Amino acid sequence: VEEMLRKPQDPNWANAFGQTPLVVASDLGHLEVAALLLEAKADPDLLGSAEGDGEQQTPLYLASTEGHLEIVHLLLEANADHGILSGSHGRTALYQASWHGHLEVARALLDFGGAVNQKDGCCHTALQAAAIRGYGRMVRLLLDAGANADVEGSLGDSPLLHAAQEGHVEVVRLLLQALDGEHLSSRHLDVVRSLLKSGAGQ
User: Could you say which of 98, 126, 143, 197 has the lowest number of CB atoms within 10 Å?
Assistant: First the structure.
């Protein structure tokens, strides 16, 4: 790659399937290749298709999805925009890190100003992703960063409701502490009480 980049060419070139060098390198975790491409002025925010299937994603979205922490740091230091919505559902890098349980990636995104309450195409936030998956440490990280525990998706689904449905008792407790008894419907409370009484998820 280094030898090729010495010759005049466009580091943002995409093939017929929409795959760009930086998108592919970020997806597969090739740190040195990604660094060389950024040095050659590859656009860290250029959307491309990692799988060549037409789905458009940023390098940061892909690196966050796969948990490639060093590449995430590299892209953030190159001023990659962490707020761009990518993929078929229009999700952020922080949402992807939260969904896949990549705690240190999420921490890095937040340290670089990631919008903790930004919603995806279904009006879901990173907190809802972590609540669905039952990642207690991720939920705590997001709450400490100012995540809205009372946020609702397009169908009125809240992080608490998701955690209750999945039986994630630890996450339910964290969300109840964050809500401090406010904004809880009787329907939510009945589900939560039942789960805590039965010890679901333990």
Answer: 197
**pLDDT cut 90: percent of the chain above it:** 73
pTM surpassing 0.70? Answer: yes
What are the structural domains of the chain?
1-115 (1.25.40.20), 116-202 (1.25.40.20)
Q: Which residue, chain included where needed, has tokens 């169908």?
A: 155
Measured distance CA(115)–CA(153) in Å, rounded: 17
7-45 pLDDT, tens per residue?
Answer: 557 899 999 999 999 999 999 999 999 999 999 999 999
- CA separation for the pair 132, 160 (Å, rounded): 9
Q: Which two tokens stand for residue 41?
A: 């002025």
- Are the beta carbons of 134 and 170 closer than 8 angstroms? yes
Averaged pLDDT for residues 53-61 = 94
For the segment 163-185, the average pLDDT, to the nearest whole number, is: 84
**DSSP structural state of residue 182:** -
Residue 154 tokens, joined? 């397009």
Length of the chain: 202
- In DSSP terms, which residues pair with 48 in a beta bridge? 57
The b/e string for 22-55 (b: 16+ C-beta within 10 A; e otherwise) is: bbbbbbebbbebbbbbbebebbbeebbbbeeeee
